[in-house]
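Dear U.,

For the methods section draft, I wanted the exact inputs and outputs in one place so we can describe them consistently. I've listed the two proteins in the order they'll appear in the manuscript figures. Please don't edit the token lines directly; just add comments below if something needs changing.

First protein:
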Amino acid sequence: MIAQLLQDKVALVTGANRGIGAAVAKVFAGHGAVVAVNYNRSREPAEQVVSAITTAGGRAIACQADVTDREQVERMVRDIVSTCGRLDVLVNNARPIPMSFTSYLTTDMQEIEARVVAELRAIDACCRSVFPLMKEQGGGRIINVSTIAARQAQAAAMTAAYSVAKAAMEGLSRVIAMEFAPYGIIVNVVAPGLVLTERVKSRRSPEELERLAAGTPLRQLASPEDVAGAILLFALDEARFVTGQYIYASGGTIMS
């Protein structure tokens, strides 16, 4: 029997209707958490994640909000607390703007600015919205999902605007970690490398994926569940003395 590491916890996972977010929701629910599965426009995939969790014996609800809109996020948090009684963990995973695969020289400043602003608004809206509640509860966990492309030039080569936006988010995460720490609110960042989501599989050939996997020390690429496992570490009560930190979930592609 799997240990219930998040028993009686309530977690909000943004952008949880697919990919890494969906995997996090399922892993958290598998460890006993009640999970709020956030989505913006695509309700059906979110309901499918909820159904998968409840079918497996877990507890989950779907909750709609554009995470760049503070009012919508605050409404979502109120609804979660009204339904579940509390909120212990926030995973900021949503991607406010779909990723584009362009180099710096083919990306104009307007796109970079738009992505940076959207990324920061999402983190800001979610963190500010949960802060009063977590403060009153005596603590909480916030895990922000980044990318190794924010720190590795090669990985950022064709994701210029996205990489810049995530680098800005990491800077804001450190500021939030410092200011939230006195209230027992732990803030950390997990940065995946290439993850085998359905979107990635559809864009790259099996041969290319095999070559990329061979270039990692572990000789494999991450599944969404692999990244969810790293995020789980920061959600645990046992991680209460770890804040403002950064974990690469890259199969050893980057070692610090």
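Second protein (the one for the lower panel):
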Amino acid sequence: MTDLVTVFRTRSDVEASIVRGLLEAHGVPSVVASPLPQSLFPMAVNTLGEIGIAVHEADAEEALRIIEEHRTGLTNGLVVRLRDEFETLQLTIAYRFRDRGLLEHALTHTSRANEDVSGGVRDNESLEFLGDALLGFVIADLLFNEFPDRDEGQKSKIKAALVSTVTLAGMAERLNLGEHLLLGRGEEKTGGRRKQALLADGYEALIAAIYLDGGIEHARAFVAREFAALLADAHDAAAAGRDYKSALQELVQSRNALLPEYRLVGTVGPDHRKLFQVEVVVSGEPLAEATGASKKEAEQEAARLALEHLRSTDRT
């Protein structure tokens, strides 16, 4: 082991993986090592929580040159920060993390954590739990202030639609969140970046990470920005005293068309997290298809999409 030279140190499992991939891509084999005795194994860490990337002495100069080309600056005497792979996401969400590790934690799926032999990588399930509670609180607060004349049942119905798995997955897709998820090999192969449940969970974990990094006001501001359009739609529907299915029915009746028909296309997912796929048809023409945790939720979303389709057709 004496011919090994440590060329990079970091506290980030993700950053260590990036550096190793970078070196391997340039034909430089590497190992992950700690200065502690008997600690040479993948993703080992030392007492400071640092991960060391080591190469053979003969490759050290070349490895340092490769890393140097990809540096953005020296953050302290030991750790070198590479270009931030989450920079695009931070720009998209209009929030920059002071503790970048929180963002990394929020995007780490359990499949990725389970593949880490060091045990130093945590999944985002606890953040998801916290984010779910935060989102529910902020949405309830927004609805309380924006719908003062609506009763509890009406506000609960709007809230349920806004925080549904389908809605959150759609919000995550708008942020391109799937491309930033840290997944295990199995989830990667089975299309985890496009799974609604994973996207929704990651979105909730992101809200929790913003809260822990910047406080409740930053988390509230993020949710308010993200849900502004949906709240406006809900406000319009509530003001008219109707839901999306009623609004669609009223619109097609004004055009002397047949009443909308909702057809169950199929179901996806395990029984405990089953999603229903529903198609809405008007006068024999399929207008939209949506997925929801219940048939009613899927029908409402399909009606909303059908309304958007018909209104966009009118504008053109």
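Candidate sentences for the figure legend, describing the second protein: The chain has a mean pLDDT of 82. Residues 71 and 144 are 48 Å apart (CA to CA).

Thanks,
Y.
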